[in-house]
């Protein structure tokens, strides 16, 4: 078994490589060549933690495996990030474990890459303003990934804890973009593309906030009960997702579906836009990508980082 330690990931995996891997996964899913296994996600009753497993199989790349991990909200007191995970890959021909890969940075990179793929295919033409809702650990990855696929002219942002907005300001400065902290009404009115990446359990961006042609990448809701958007706003949008079953059960769409505002049949896999079997915006005022996070994405970036680690001779070999 090969082991790629978390500390090695930053020097191996690039955002460009993550984007290519995730775009290919969306395409394979739409083509029926890859599928995700049912998600297990539980509150374990200790440290307020959520723990679970996401896995799948991509027949086009022969990638098989799972990610084990979750969300530990009290980790700051231990100087650790809240999201902790490890990805395990298995040989599709024999079932033997092939690799164990640190999953923390890869989770942030694949999540950002997923929203960036949605921006590439669904952003309004001539989009100039990127709106960011949330300023936690993953927000910087989201902003960098968005800026790589579209030429934004400025960034505006909001966070429930304003003191954390320095992360967004610093990331925008790194990208050479002006940044302004705004309220949600201005953000919804001025942003052409909005990325939400919070752990909220109540709606933040309301229907009346969003005006004009807009693409929204809702990336924070991945558990039953979480919510970032007003269900009425979700119902206004042409909806895309990574996995429809997850969108209606643990994703942003769960609330609109529960209220009878959206039907599962109206939700399209993003891979259809990638493959050209769906026309994308096609005149829609609002498009929404409900990014629930799927196991195949984790496996794709893990497989890529194993290849890079082998090429550089830094993958450790362990017999089990």
UniProtKB/TrEMBL annotation:
CC terms in the record's Gene Ontology section: cytoplasm
Cross-referenced InterPro entries: BhcD-like, NAD(P)-bd_dom_sf, ODC_Mu_crystall, ODC_N
Pfam families, per the entry: OCD_Mu_crystall
Segments crossing the lipid bilayer: none
Tree of life domain: Bacteria
Protein name (record): Ornithine cyclodeaminase family protein
């Amino acid at each position: 078994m090969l082991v790629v330690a978390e500390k090695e990931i930053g020097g191996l995996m690039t955002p460009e490589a993550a984007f290519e891997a995730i775009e290919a996964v969306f395409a394979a899913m739409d083509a029926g060549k890859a599928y995700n296994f049912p998600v297990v996600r539980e509150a374990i009753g200790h440290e307020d933690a959520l723990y679970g497993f996401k896995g799948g199989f991509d027949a086009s790349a022969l990638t098989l495996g799972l990610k084990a991990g979750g969300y530990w909200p009290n980790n700051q007191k231990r100087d650790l990030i809240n999201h902790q995970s490890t990805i395990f890959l298995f040989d599709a021909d024999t079932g033997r474990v092939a690799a164990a890969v640190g999953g923390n940075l890869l989770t942030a990179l694949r999540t950002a890459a997923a929203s960036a793929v949605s921006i590439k295919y669904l952003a309004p033409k001539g989009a100039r303003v990127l709106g960011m809702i949330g300023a936690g650990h993953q927000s910087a990855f989201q902003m960098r990934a968005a800026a790589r696929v579209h030429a934004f002219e400025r960034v505006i942002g909001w966070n429930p804890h304003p003191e954390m907005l320095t992360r967004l300001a610093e990331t925008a400065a790194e990208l050479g973009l002006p940044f302004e902290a705004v309220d949600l009404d201005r953000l919804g009115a001025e942003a052409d593309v909005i990325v939400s990446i919070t752990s909220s359990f109540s709606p933040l961006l309301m229907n009346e906030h969003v005006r004009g042609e807009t693409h929204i990448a809702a990336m924070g809701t991945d558990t039953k009960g979480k919510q970032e958007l007003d269900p009425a706003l979700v119902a206004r949008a042409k909806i895309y997702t990574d996995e429809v079953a997850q969108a209606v059960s643990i994703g942003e769409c769960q609330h609109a579906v529960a209220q009878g505002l959206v039907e599962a049949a109206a939700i399209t896999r993003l891979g259809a836009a990638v493959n050209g079997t769906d026309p994308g915006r096609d005149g829609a005022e609002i498009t929404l990508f409900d990014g629930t996070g799927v196991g195949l994405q984790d496996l794709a970036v893990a497989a890529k980082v194993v290849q890079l680690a082998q090429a550089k001779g830094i993958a450790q070999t362990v017999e089990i």
